[in-house]
Each structure stands twice: as structure tokens, then as C-alpha cells.
Amino acid sequence: MSLLVTLRRRIVALLTVMVGSAGLVAALVVPTGGSSVTAVVGAAAGGDRFGDAADFGSMAGKALAQPIVGMAASPTGRGYWLVARDGGVFSFGDARFLGSTGALRLNKPIVGMSSTPSGSGYFFVASDGGVFTFGDATFRGSTGAVPLAQPIVAMAATPSGRGYWLVARDGGIFTFGDAGFFGSDAGRLSQPVVAIGATPTGRGYWLLTADGRVRNHGDAVAAGSAPRSGTSVSGFARTPTGRGYWIAGSSGSVGAFGDAATYAPSSVNSKVVGIAPTPTGQGYWLATSTGAVLSHAVVESAPAPVLQASGPYAFLATDRSGRGMRYNPCAPVRYVINPDGAPAGMAGEVQEAFRRLSAATGIDFTFAGTTTETHITIGSGQRRSYQPDRYGAGQWAPVLISWATAASEPTLSGSTLGYGGSTSYWLSTTHQAYVTGEVVFDRDLSVLRGGFGAGLTRGNLAQHEIAHVAGLDHVQDRAQIMNPSLSAQTPDGYGPGDRAGLAQLGQASGCLNVASRPA
Question: What are phi and psi of 237, to 5 degrees?
Fold first, then answer.
């Protein structure tokens, strides 16, 4: 007798006390018995140039296995490198290709890069602190085998190239080679760190948080910050003198401080992930997650056209413009796991499912560690979407992943194996957007095989439920993982329609201005 896994959607109001809030969940039950969406953003053919930054090419419009996460300029200013989440390297101008990790399976994704002073080498760092070196870049150590309180988010090489700093989301600093320790911000920040910049002397550094605040250490000069409600920044670059710097916003705006020059503003629909200054300090390049390199101002008022999907998809909810309700793709979306009662190995499978969701959407779904927070039984109360005492002030509670029994959550009685969804929140000055979510699995998943692969696997269950968190609803096409039924014929992971829908919920649809906490 074949086994059929049927999925049933459930809709529950999760956040009724906040302005413009709503929640959606979808359930997974088990009774016994074309082309993906793309958006092209490139350097403008005309318009205002970012100082003396010249256009040496980009990956705009080309297929990428993984989104771009960072960039570095060659010391001559006549070239630059882009690095992707999988460690793939793309070189332009006089920046030479010296190797990559694009063909390797990494334990954790690459989050940043830095070049050597000679321009004949570069470093990568992964979110676990693993460091990869190429050309004349020398390995000086890493945190790849060290348990971290928070993941690594960026790196900076010393002026000599004989050392480097790694910085974690919480502002923790790790030094290697001739990199000196000049203080950290671990435990003192309300927003995560997104970038680090070294001073010209190597005797200090700046840390940039997601809301635009700059923290200076050592001989780093405090030239100003750009804090604003709803701000999402992603890059930091100093001037050659060290008396100024630029802060790059995720949507393309750039703030200039100290002796940094101001150029025409940009507004792009794919996330800006890096900024690199020219050697003169009289210009800069911006890199986006889609592989575009901007040397001129670009202004886009609407998302780029998308190709027709080769399979169906549906959204759990739509915003006021009729588009699928979604998270801000230009800021990390944290998730936490309460492993109590989880089948052996499934916590790791959930993390892999989020990695695949990140690849499909371009959104940085970031594992923020384990938690003791437990699921609140439906009908008995509501999960608080803002929990500053538990998860930090000034940021929404992470997506919660947990396991329960039918005794503690009656929704899991009978054949239901889990459900998931997200809560939205907005103000009159912000976009409608999801801000947090939740997935609850049944503790008894013996009907499914462990791991990933086609058919009835826990991996397919996890991918289905977290796709609900991202905003997808059910469809009737059996070639999609969002079909209401999983069976032995279900493919491994997302189908073409699933991927098209997830792309529209991700970076292809542009950045959102989202409240950082309830008003």
C-alpha cells in the first residue's frame, strides 16, 4: 500500500494587538492507507558617476549558482572581484582570478572577502569563521573549529596583509596574524554588526551595525553614523586618510561622513551587498546580490520585469499592491531552534532546509542558535513577535522552530505532522511585510525518512513548511513541493514553480522598508 502525505492549510491570527498585523500558518498532515524569476540590475550607461570609479564589467544578467555576498577592489583601482555565497569568484579588469571554493561543499556559506595589499591574493571567510586563502594571501588561523556565540559576518585584512580580523554578528572580534585587538562590542548592541573596516595604520577598526550606527575602536575616527528607524545597511568603506567613510544602504543609498565625498544617490531593487573605494578615495563601486557592479547612479522605481514561471505558485497573503507578502530581502532573517524532542539529526536538516531557502530567495536566513522558547498552544495565547528580554532590543523575535506532541498541541493530533507561517506588521510609513514566523513539527515523524531526497523525507517536510514561512501557499501541481500531497513521486526539494514563487518573495522584488520593532 502506498503512503500519501497530504498537506492542509490553516489560517490563524497571530498578532492582533499590533497595527496592521496578521499571521498565517499552514499544516502538514499524513493520512495512512519554467524558468525561475530573475531581475537584472547593472551599472547605468549614463547618469552621475561615483567619482573616479570606472566600469570594468559585472555579472548582471548572468546566471549565478548563489548570490553575491561581497566585493574587493584591486589596489590599482582598475579592477575588482566579486565573491558569491558558495565562494565562487568573479574577476574584472586587472583583478586576477586566483582560485575559489565554488566547486566545494562548504560547511557554512561565505560571508565576506578581503584582498591583499599587492592585489595578488584574497581571503574569504565563512559564517563559522573558516578562512580560505588564495594567491599570496597567507592563512593565519580561523574560528572554523571553535563554537561561536554568533556567526561571523565580515572580515578585514591588516594593511600589511599579514593578518586579519573577523567580526561576529554580536560585535565579537577575533584577531589573527598581526591584527591587534582594540576592543569589541559583544553584548552591548541592539542591532547586529554587518561590516568591519580597518584603519590605514592597522591600529583600529570600525564596526557597522544593521541600522547604520558606527562603532569605533583603537585609532578609528568617529565621523558620524546614520541611524534611522527602518534603515538597513550592508557595507562600509573608509577613505585613504582614515578621516572619513561611506555607509552603503541595502537599497543603494550611500551616506558620506568625514572627508568622504558625496555622489549622486541610487535606488536599486536588488540588495547592495558591498562597497569598495577607489585607491584615490575619490569614488567607489557598489555590488549587488545579483552580481551587478554600479559605478554610476541608478534609480529604479519598480522591480525589474520577470520571466514567466514554468510552474504554478501561490502566496499565503498579498500586500496592498497585490504582491505576495514577504520579508525584507535586504536584511537578515534570523531563526532559532528549540531542539527539545526533535528526531535525531533533524535540527541539522532544518538548517540545511533554510540554506536551500536562502539560495532560492536570496534572503539571508541566519541561524541565531538554540532557544528555550516553547510553542504556545493555538487558542491558548499568542507568541510575542517582539521579545527584547530574550532576543535583544530593537529587533523582531527570530522565526521559531520547535517540536511538540498532540498532547501539548492538539493541532498535531491524528495525521498532522506540522505547520508553519509568518506574522506581518506595518505602519503608515513602512511597507507591509513579514517580521517573524514559526514552524512546529510533530515529534513523531517515523513515517518519513531522515535526510533529503525525493519522496517522503523529513527534508521535503522541512522545505515545505519553511516555504510557508517565506510566504508560499499550496498549489495543485504535483511537480511542486507546495502541492498539498507528498508521495513517493515527489521530487527532491523545490520545483520550478516553487522556485519562481520564492524568487518573487526574495531579492528579485526589491528591498522593503520595515519597522525594526513595534511602534
Answer: -145, 135
